[in-house]
Amino acid sequence: MPDARDQIMAAADAAPRWAAGPEGREPPPSHDDEAATSLSARDSLTDLVDPTTLFGIDPPQREYVIEEMLPKGAVTTLIGPGGAGKSLVALQAQISTAIGGDFLGFRVKKCKSLAFYCEDDAHEVHRRAKAICIHYGIWLKDIGLARWQGRFGKQNVIATFRDGMLCPTEFFDFILEAMRHTGAELLILDNIAQLFAGNENDRSMVTQFVNRLGQIAIEFDAAVLLLGHPGKSSVGLTAEFSGSTAWDAAARLRWLLSRPEQEKDGPEIDPDLRVLTKKKSNYSSIGDEIMLRWDNGAFQALNTAGPDMVDRIDQNTKASACQDAFLLALAKLETEGRKVTSKSRAGNYAPNEMIRMPMMQAWRKRQIEAAMQDLFDGGHIVELPYGSPSRGWTYLAPTSEKATNGGM
Question: Largest CB tally within 10 Å, which of 83, 84, 261, 304?
Answer without folding.
Answer: 84
